[in-house]
Design brief:
This protein has about 130 residues and is mainly α. About 75% of the residues lie in helices and about 0% in strands. It has one domain (about 1-125). The protein contains four helices and no strands.
Length: about 130
C-alpha cells in the first residue's frame, strides 16, 4: 500500500514539459526506482521468511535430539530403540526446506513409511 502511494506521488508530480524525450526519461527513471524498491522489499521479505522457517526447523531438530534419550529409555526392546534412533537421525540430518527454492516435486514420507524398510533390514540382520 505504501509503495503504491509513493508511486502515485512520484508519477503524479512529473514536471510538465513539451519535450517527450525529457518526459519519457523522467517517467522511466521513476518507474525504475519504484521497481528497484519493490524488488528490494520482496527480496528482504523472502529472506526473512526463509530465516524464520529455518529457525523453526532447527529448533525442531534440537528438540528431537533432546527427547531421544527419553524415547530410548521408555521402551526396553532394542528393535524399537533402533527405530527411534533411525527416525531421530533422519529428522536431524534431513535437509530443511528454507522456502527460498522450490522443492521440485519431492514428496515427504511419514515415519511409518520410513520405518518399514528399516524394520525389514533389521529383521534380516537378526536372522543372520
Amino acid at each position: 500500500m505504501i509503495l503504491g502511494v509513493v508511486g502515485w506521488i512520484m508519477l503524479a508530480h512529473v514536471p510538465p514539459t513539451d519535450d517527450w524525450s525529457v518526459f519519457a526519461r523522467q517517467i522511466a527513471a521513476r518507474v525504475f526506482a519504484l521497481g528497484a524498491v519493490s524488488y528490494a522489499i520482496t527480496f528482504v521479505a523472502r529472506i526473512y521468511r526463509s530465516n524464520a522457517h529455518l529457525r523453526a526447523a532447527y529448533e525442531q531438530k534440537a528438540h528431537a535430539l533432546d527427547t531421544f534419550s527419553l524415547f530410548a529409555r521408555s521402551n526396553p526392546e532394542e528393535d524399537v530403540r533402533n527405530l527411534v534412533l533411525a527416525e531421530v537421525v533422519r529428522s536431524v540430518f534431513s535437509a530443511a526446506d528454507s522456502g527460498v527454492f522450490e522443492k521440485g516435486g519431492t514428496t515427504e514420507h511419514t515415519i511409518v513409511e520410513s520405518a518399514v524398510p528399516l524394520a525389514a533390514a533389521l529383521s534380516k540382520q537378526r536372522a543372520t
